[in-house]
Every structure is written in C-alpha cells, then in structure tokens.
Amino acid sequence: GATTAIYRTNWVGGQPRKIVERALDAAWSPDGEQIVFNAGALENSRSTLIGIADAQDGTSRELVRIDNSVVTGPRWSPDGETIAAIAQPIAGNAVDSKLLLVDVATGAARRLEPIEPAAHMSPPTWLGRGEALVYALSTEPVGDAAGGLSRVVRYDLEADRHRTLFWTENLFPTLGGGGGQTQFEVVGPGRLVYHEFAVRQTLELYEIAGSGSPPDRRSLTAGNSDDRQPAYSPDGSAILFTSNRGGNLDIWLYEVESGAIRQLTDDDANDWDPGWTPDGQGIVWSSNRSGNLEIWTAARDGSGARQVSSDGFDAENPTVTPDGWVVYWSSNPDKLGVWKVRLDGSESVHLVDGRYLTPDVSPDGRYATILSLGAYETVIRVIEVATGEIVPFEITVSHGSGAGVLWGRTRWLPEGDAIAFVGVDDEGRSGVFRQQFAPGRDTASTRRPLAGFSPDFVTESFTIDPSGRYLTLSGVRQVGSLLLVEGLPGIEPPVRVGR
C-alpha cells in the first residue's frame, strides 16, 4: 500500500504475516521474542518513535519519541537492555547526525557524538557482549558526491573511545532524497560484510512537443561523473547542472547550441542546487562554504560569489521569482520550512512552517510547489509566494523505496498551467509526469508521462526549456556490491548474554 509495515515469514517460505502497521526498520531482540521498530517521519512529522512489539501477535508499545529527528536503523544490544540507532535531522543535509542509545526498561535516551561531526551515518552494529559498536560516517552534506572517502569506526562505549578501522568509498550515495546508507554485519572474528553502491549520472535530452511518443533520447554528458540537477536558462540557451567531474561538487554550464561544457564555481566546499536569476545574468545555488549549506549567488560566469541566506544550519534548493525573491527551504529545527529572501539578503520571510522541501517557483512568480514527504508517498502542495498560504490543490505521488531519489521533485511547465514531477509508472520505472494545475480541483485524470521511464536508468532530477519543447533529465545508474573485509582488530560477533 501507500505506507510501510513490518512483516515476518518463515525461512522456508510461506505466507508473510503483518505484525506492525506503519513502521519502517525492525530488528529482533536477542531472545527472538520481540522486535524493535521505528515509525513516524511520515508526512510533515517532526518526530520519530521507537517502539517494541511482540514478534508473534504484534502487540506493541512506544518506548520513546525523539523530536526534531529521523531515527533509523534501531539495533538491540546482545544483553537486551539497550537499543542503538542513528538520529539524523528530519530533512536536508545538515552535519548533525548522532548515535542514539535508548534504555529498554525506562525509555531514557541519550545522544552520543560520533568521532567527528557527521552528515550521514550507517545503522550501528553491536559487537561482542555489547561493549562496542561499529558504524560508518561521512562528514560531507552531499555524501559520496563530494568525491571523498567515508570512515568506518569502532566505538568502545565504556571508554568512550573511537578507533578508525578503515576508509572506503560508495557508502552514502546521496542524490538529494536523503540518500542511501550502508549496513554492516559481523560474520566472524575480525570480519565484516557490508554493501556499497557506485553511482553514475548523466544528462539526457528528450523532445516532448507534440502528442506522439518522444523520440529516442540523446545524451548530453557522459563519463564517470555525477551530473544532476539541470536548470535551463530563461532564454533556453544554456543548462546549469551540478557535477563532481572536477573532484568535488561544483556548478557547471552546458551551452545548448555548441555542446560546450565549462565550470562556473571552483571551491573546496561543495556547490549544488543551481538556479537562475530572472534576467539570466546571475545564478543561485546552495553551498557549505560558510560551514553549513546556505544560499549563494554570483554572476552568470560564476564571478562575484556572495552569501544570501543566514540560516546557520541547512538552507537548500533556491528558486527565484521574477521580482527578485529567492525562495528556499531550511531543515533548521528553529526555522523549519520554506522561506523567501531578497537577492541582497534582506527581508527574510518565513512562508510556511513544517517539514516541506524543494520549492519551485511558477513562471509568473505567484506560486511555488513544495514537497511533503512520507515513507512511501510524497504530496506535492502549492503555496502563494506573497503570503505563504497553502493553495487548495495537491498531487499525491506513490512510490517504492530505494535509489535515493527525491520522489515528487517538480518543475512548472512554461505556461504555468501544469506541473511536471518525478514519479513511478505501473511497471515500477521512474520518469517525469505532467499534471494540470487548477486550484480547488482534482486533476489526477490529466496526469500523463513525459520522459524517462527507461529500464536503463532511474530518473532523478530534470528541467524543461522555456519553449516547453525539450526536457533534460539526470539518469542514475547504480552498481551494487557486497564486500567482505577481514583482519579487523576488535571485531567480535555479538554474543547473547546468559546463553
């Protein structure tokens, strides 16, 4: 259905049996009689609950509710007394992830600092009799796209001491949708098994004018880089996009007529989320040059970069109205939701409060789409930019999990009478749909596919040129691997205490 649930089934097969409704991750207790699960983080939720359920009949109780966080990967300690998990910001890519330890008897929870400030962390795995945990972390808000390595560490709880076990790549394939994360299992003394995903993204061009099927796509970029988040210039002559082809994430430009590609930003920090100013003579984007992701602007050639927002935590996905308002969203718990600010950084206004992401301004600047995320469902809503009022109109995008894609990512059609968005067809393939925009009406019957829906890649982000004739999308190709690492000191299989 539209939400996830926890099921159990026999090793030898048979009918799966649902035991917990509306829940996400789950893990067995050491005696096999109970499971721990996390729930919440549903549409516009600001908290996650950790619960315990009887593994036979599903009778459950809430253990603890964690506010302003998404809790993932709960794991039961070998002695059955503690739950370990990861607490992450409720949205976005802030460097604020923590280890979470919850006492099973009392529900008391405490957050532990990782070995260094972390944007992404893997679910923790218990070692031995529960004296230590192993997990991976990345300090980069953009995860693997930054081009660096992630650290795998062993944490001794009693001594409060970390030890780096090894560094490796492809553990956090972040594509702007929260991304994915690896998991570890201990398979013997000194031996861990884990998974990785190598991600490659290219820009693909479709012609969408006319009533017939679009012709075969044409690749605009190629290679081993990740090219994503395309954005057509107001005159259609160029496409901004994000790429790590220079080593880390920067803003690049593709000239439509000549096919020439050139780099616009070059900084040790990561630059992504590109967009244009209304006159096409300037660009906006999100960068962590100041220590966290903020909104920046520069001239069309990338010169004169300066910071626009002052969020202090995590500001992303800027889009600009014709009269010069920059609309963006923040995952700052104290400033959560969608904001607008002038290009010079003045007149900051909180438009709508809540877990809303990725605004996109309509061509006339009157409206902006915003996304409200659920576990298996995204709701596209529309606000008035002048007032922040939510318009009586929505599009529900049901989808599967995985791929790290931000389902429901939107772009307006040039006339402003329709919205295009990333979704999934009946065969489970991702692509771009369009649907009419009419406040106060259900327009689901007008939904039709535009581009993508290929068995060769996953559609992740896209843009439509000002004429409405061409659509350029970013296609994701993932290669997954299981890896075994041996000879690691201090890695012992979990031992059930008292057995």
Features:
single chain, mainly beta, 5-stranded antiparallel beta sheet, 0% helix
Describe the overall structure.
This protein has 499 residues and is an all-beta fold. Strand 31 (356-361) and strand 32 (367-373) form a beta hairpin. Strands 11, 12, 13, 14 and 15 form a 5-stranded antiparallel sheet that branches. Strands 16, 17, 18, 39 and 40 form a 5-stranded antiparallel sheet that branches. The protein is 0% helix and 51% strand. The model has no long low-confidence stretch (mean pLDDT 91). The chain contains no helices and 40 strands.
Number of helices: 0
Helical content band: under 10%
Distance between the termini: 40 Å
Query: What class do helices, strands and sheet pairing give?
Result: mainly beta
Q: Largest beta sheet, briefly?
A: 5 strands, antiparallel
Tell me the strand percentage band: over 45%
Provide the low-confidence segments as ranges.
none
The total beta strand count reads 40
What is the overall pLDDT average?
A: 91
**Rg measurement, Å:** 23 Å
Shape: globular
